[in-house]
Amino acid sequence: MKVLALSVSAGTGHFKAAKAIKNYFEKNYTDVEMEIIDTLRYINPVINKIVVGSYLQSIKITPKIYEKLYEHADKDDTISSFSEMANHLLSIKIKSLVEDINPDVILCTHPFPLEMISILKRKGKISIPAIGILTDYAVHSFWFYDYIDAYIIPNEDFIDEAAEKGADINSLYPLGIPVESQFLMPVEKAAIKNQLGLYEGKPTILLMGGSLGIGNIKKIYEALSLSDLDIQLIVCTGRNHRLKEKIEEIYEKAQKKSLILSYTENMNAIMSVSDILITKPGGLTIAEALVKGLPIIINSPIPGHEEKNANYLLNCGIAATFKKSSDAVNVVRQLIKNTSRLEQMKSIALEKSKPNSTKDICRLIIEQSKK
């Protein structure tokens, strides 16, 4: 069986979701071949640079404009119509790709290629089963199109909203956001702490801002490391090398045990030894944290989809938040002193998690291939 996964490199979450599925297939199936394509880069590197570059610049420099566009696109057909015209033209090259690979199932972890596949199916150019995987704890109209056979949503809480946005309720599968199988593996926390040079029995705060190292991480680290809290810190700066340099400068005068990391593939171990995660609420990061039962403090959500992620976590009781970087100290203090609240946050996180998401999604893909 062949699976074609179409994604877009706007951040790492969309690709990580596809990669988790590919890795599971490779480890557990000998008769499944899966290929992941960076859709816009495949169609035209210049278009990819313009679209992805504009997105990354907007969330860094003009996040409020991005928020308005996100909200407007969810409620108004004008942007949707423009998107359809653009994707109608771009879908021509995707048709050639589909013909070359000849997959049994097409998987999309971003709405752009999903709309292209919908257009091709509507015009009768292809008839291959297509699946969309939502990679946020938020529902947006841009995800839902005709002729898509299945939608994988984060959990049962999103069924009604997805149906209101136009999805056929019979096409909705609340299987979760796929995470790597390593997050299900038990770890020996004491051994990992010893290996990382961390103290046993001291609250461990994990501070991160996604692969881009977005958010006021420097100010939060400075506030926490110079506070009177009896904690230790792990800071993941992603691929933001300048941020890592700034954190290391603060570390020289810091009063707390700190582990400073760049982008790491060892997040299962890092999350396993952490007691609280301070992060911007990217969909994949949330999914991983929920599987680990890790309470979250929300920092600097990207307006739009991440603000929706944040609202979901806060409404469920999984997360806390703060407005100013200096307030992080008091929020952490409240949580580590209120052990019953911290345990409740862990319990709800595990309740809302989908630890078998990747396995269940792979089974669904196989089922869809037989239709």
From TrEMBL:
This is Monogalactosyldiacylglycerol synthase. It is found in: Membrane. Its main location: membrane. The keyword Acetylation does not apply. InterPro entries: Diacylglyc_glucosyltr_N, Glyco_trans_28_C, Glycosyltransf_28_UgtP. Belongs to the glycosyltransferase 28 family. GO terms for biological process: glycolipid biosynthetic process. Pfam families: Glyco_tran_28_C, MGDG_synth. Residues 14-179 form the Diacylglycerol glucosyltransferase N-terminal domain. Gene3D superfamilies: Glycogen Phosphorylase B. Keywords: Glycosyltransferase, Transferase. Coiled coil: none annotated. One of its GO terms (molecular function) is hexosyltransferase activity. GO terms for cellular component: membrane. Residues 204-355 form the Glycosyl transferase family 28 C-terminal domain. The keyword Transferase applies.
